[in-house]
């Protein structure tokens, strides 16, 4: 056990798994937020960017990990790095451009200079390196000791770049468990081919006055909020076509990983005719034909699978859509009452230009702050945050009882449970269960369930007898 026992006990009481309720203070409290930065964003695997954003030697892009500003770089030798964007001398940001190419990050404050692998330049005196290294530091400053801070671990996973500040964190693949196959599906629409995606145009970024957890707990499987998106159906710009959001509920299921905190909505393989009727790209015949071919290929590759992956959330703050359009959205915390959203739009790297062009226009009208759907969600999260922070409001818990006790183990993905219909809050509760485990200060052996804990709260499942009866 790490941290303070009394605090851990108080935190344990905030999420009541068996009864499906959680304290609102989780979404509004400043002290809990500070603890999240340390226990969750200081330890978990966070998505930083995509390799296609830094294709050439000395390319860089700014990103974030929790509240920390970091730089994703490709050094002169082609190796990727994730570096803290803070000068080792007095903390100034050494990089203030969103992206670019440079041989050196020269700090604007006193001109310490770093190469794109983070090293403090090993050159005495002059404009670069450490000014005055010979004359004023008397050659005593050990430049090897004062490079930019690097993350403890970094992983390039099929083009996406992930990092953690914790050297003891398990490898990313173990952290993802079998939920990894869902991410694979989002990263490559043709699962048999490696490295098939690139980020289309730039990253869309916007800030909203809401707690960061509203977004991942929405993306993890809040099917019931489809009512918020009626405007999209009326305008017939939903990727699944007009009215389909409700109809497709029949073939959709919630899958969650109670021991890892990830989850999403999956679906049964769709017949060909459903694709034809449902695709919003039907109005662009060439684009529709491209996606139909991709879909056909995927169907062959996945022959025999009973369920496909869909949208979901990787604990703590990365969500994605697997189906067209494929996007990744990272929810960066900006204090307990503000979130900065970063949305990456993915497209097959070798897709024809007309497909990329159509998608670019589509993304702008459908997603992002200027799109149709995002505004619906943002409004819900903004007002929910605002109406939960009052001294009276925060005394009453949120309700997560939808479908509670109707989940059962799913053999297709080791470690997962599923609910036979998608209108369930099992995944939101699974996310909060994981939140509680991190926040109580469990160590990695405990978090990865290598060491059993006496106070472990199992996720409520349908009893075997009840399941058999239902069959
Ligand atoms: Fe960067 Fe002084 S703060 S050189
Ligand atoms: Fe939504």
UniProtKB/TrEMBL annotation:
<keyword id="KW-0479">Metal-binding</keyword>
<dbReference type="InterPro" id="IPR036922">
    <property type="entry name" value="Rieske_2Fe-2S_sf"/>
</dbReference>
<dbReference type="GO" id="GO:0051213">
    <property type="term" value="F:dioxygenase activity"/>
</dbReference>
<dbReference type="Pfam" id="PF00848">
    <property type="entry name" value="Ring_hydroxyl_A"/>
</dbReference>
<dbReference type="InterPro" id="IPR015881">
    <property type="entry name" value="ARHD_Rieske_2Fe_2S"/>
</dbReference>
<dbReference type="Pfam" id="PF00355">
    <property type="entry name" value="Rieske"/>
</dbReference>
<dbReference type="InterPro" id="IPR015879">
    <property type="entry name" value="Ring_hydroxy_dOase_asu_C_dom"/>
</dbReference>
<keyword id="KW-0560">Oxidoreductase</keyword>
<protein>
    <submittedName>
        <fullName>Rieske 2Fe-2S domain-containing protein</fullName>
    </submittedName>
</protein>
<comment type="similarity">
    <text>Belongs to the bacterial ring-hydroxylating dioxygenase alpha subunit family.</text>
</comment>
<keyword id="KW-0520">NAD</keyword>
<keyword id="KW-0411">Iron-sulfur</keyword>
<keyword id="KW-0408">Iron</keyword>
<dbReference type="InterPro" id="IPR017941">
    <property type="entry name" value="Rieske_2Fe-2S"/>
</dbReference>
<dbReference type="GO" id="GO:0004497">
    <property type="term" value="F:monooxygenase activity"/>
</dbReference>
<dbReference type="GO" id="GO:0005506">
    <property type="term" value="F:iron ion binding"/>
</dbReference>
<keyword id="KW-0001">2Fe-2S</keyword>
<dbReference type="GO" id="GO:0016705">
    <property type="term" value="F:oxidoreductase activity, acting on paired donors, with incorporation or reduction of molecular oxygen"/>
</dbReference>
<dbReference type="InterPro" id="IPR001663">
    <property type="entry name" value="Rng_hydr_dOase-A"/>
</dbReference>
<keyword id="KW-0223">Dioxygenase</keyword>
<feature type="domain" description="Rieske">
    <location>
        <begin position="45"/>
        <end position="114"/>
    </location>
</feature>
<dbReference type="GO" id="GO:0051537">
    <property type="term" value="F:2 iron, 2 sulfur cluster binding"/>
</dbReference>
């Amino acid at each position: 056990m790490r941290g303070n026992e009394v605090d851990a006990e108080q935190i344990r009481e905030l999420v009541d798994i068996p009864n499906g309720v959680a304290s609102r203070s989780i979404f509004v409290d400043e002290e809990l937020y500070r603890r999240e930065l340390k226990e969750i964003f200081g330890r978990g695997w966070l998505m930083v960017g995509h390799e296609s954003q830094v294709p050439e030697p000395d390319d860089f892009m700014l990103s974030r990990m929790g509240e920390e500003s970091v730089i994703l770089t490709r050094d002169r030798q082609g190796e990727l790095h994730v570096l803290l964007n803070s000068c080792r001398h007095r903390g100034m940001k050494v990089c203030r451009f969103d992206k670019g190419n440079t041989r050196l990050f020269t700090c604007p404050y006193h001109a310490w200079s770093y190469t794109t692998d983070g090293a403090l330049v090993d050159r005495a005196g002059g404009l670069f390196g450490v000014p005055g290294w010979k004359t004023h530091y008397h050659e005593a400053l050990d430049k090897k000791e004062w490079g930019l801070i690097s993350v403890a671990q970094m992983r390039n996973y099929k083009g996406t770049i992930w990092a953690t500040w914790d050297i003891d964190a398990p490898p990313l693949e173990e952290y993802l468990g079998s939920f990894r196959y869902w991410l694979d599906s989002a990263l490559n629409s043709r699962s048999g081919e490696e490295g098939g995606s690139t980020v289309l145009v730039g990253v869309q970024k916007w800030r909203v006055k809401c707690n960061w957890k509203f977004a991942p707990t929405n993306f993890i499987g809040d099917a019931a909020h489809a009512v918020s998106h009626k405007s999209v159906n009326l305008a017939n710009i939903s990727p699944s076509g007009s009215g389909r959001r409700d109809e497709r509920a029949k073939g959709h299921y919630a899958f969650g990983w109670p021991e890892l905190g990830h989850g999403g909505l999956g679906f049964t393989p769709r017949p060909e005719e459903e694709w034809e009727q449902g695709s919003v790209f039907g109005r662009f015949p060439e684009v529709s034909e491209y996606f139909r071919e991709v879909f056909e290929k995927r169907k062959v590759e996945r022959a025999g699978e009973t369920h496909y992956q869909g949208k979901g959330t990787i604990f703590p703050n990365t969500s994605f859509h697997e189906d067209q359009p494929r996007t990744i959205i990272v929810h960066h915390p900006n204090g307990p009452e503000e979130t900065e959203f970063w949305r990456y739009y993915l497209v097959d790297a070798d897709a024809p230009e007309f497909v990329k062009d159509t998608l670019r226009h589509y993304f702008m009208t459908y997603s992002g702050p200027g799109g149709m759907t995002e505004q619906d969600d943002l409004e819900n999260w903004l007002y929910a945050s605002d109406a939960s922070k009052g001294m009276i409001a925060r005394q009453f818990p949120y309700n997560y009882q939808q479908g509670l006790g109707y989940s059962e183990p799913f053999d297709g993905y080791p470690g997962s449970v599923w609910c036979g219909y998608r209108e369930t809050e099992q995944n939101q509760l699974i996310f909060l269960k994981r939140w509680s485990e991190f926040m109580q200060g469990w160590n990695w052996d405990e978090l990865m369930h290598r060491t059993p804990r006496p106070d472990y709260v199992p996720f409520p499942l349908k009893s075997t007898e009840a399941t058999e009866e239902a069959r």
